[in-house]
Amino acid sequence: LAGTVPEEKRCTVERADASLTYSLFLQRFAFSQPVILRGVTDNSAFRALCTREKLLAAFGARPVRLSTANTYSYRKVDVPFQEYVEHLLKPQDPARLGSDTLYFFGDNNFTEWGPLFQQYVPPPFRIPGTSPAYSFGIAGSGSGVPFHWHGPGFSEVIFGRKRWFLYPPDQTPTFHPNETTLTWLQRTYPALPLAKRPLECTLRPGEVLYFPDRWWHATLNLDTSVFISTFLG
């Protein structure tokens, strides 16, 4: 479902297509800067399994673990997947704090979700010495996670549009850890000088963002979105 969050046409993250070689990925991006990849995977079969109807039929009665949408997400809530989709999957309330906003992303039961993940085609690149782990999520318009950092990874949009904001490790962004990304965008972002603004871009279905180790990043779903990340640990 399309949301009411406006899309910023400006994109300051470099893009690459299927002509990008693994050696060039390692040389230019793996350890130094994010990149948006287009045409490196074909997940049309996976996308067909991720419609509302297909997911409810396969996982409706199974529990999913929701996290609070703040930088230090300690509270977890388990609900049936059908309850999440039918009652909690809605646009972000701008007045709600991150600690009061529940977000489905990351705490996947790999025994239950494994058959779905087996249909996903991950990006073809890896960081030497790491192994991949999937993290699947569904979220409403205006939702997202505020700034945080961890190891490197890829994130692909399956349905919807997802806006990303990124800072390198040595540039700590200005944000409140219990403020949602939507509130940060409305209150803090407009006052940032151009030199202090993050790298940013909006991803569409089929596009994959790579972010290096320890890069700060925040996300904002412009629509009801389905997405999957490949963390390299």
From TrEMBL:
**InterPro entries in UniProt:** Cupin_8 (IPR041667), JmjC_dom (IPR003347), JMJD6_ArgDemeth/LysHydrox (IPR050910)
Q: Where is the JmjC domain?
A: 99-233
Q: Which GO terms describe its molecular function?
A: cis-regulatory region sequence-specific DNA binding
**Membrane-spanning segments:** none
Q: Name one GO cellular component term.
A: nucleus
Instruction: Kindly give the PANTHER family that the UniProt entry links to this protein.
Output: ARGININE DEMETHYLASE AND LYSYL-HYDROXYLASE JMJD (PTHR12480), JMJC DOMAIN-CONTAINING PROTEIN 8 (PTHR12480:SF21)
Protein's recorded name:
JMJD8 protein
Q: Which organism is it from?
A: Eurystomus gularis
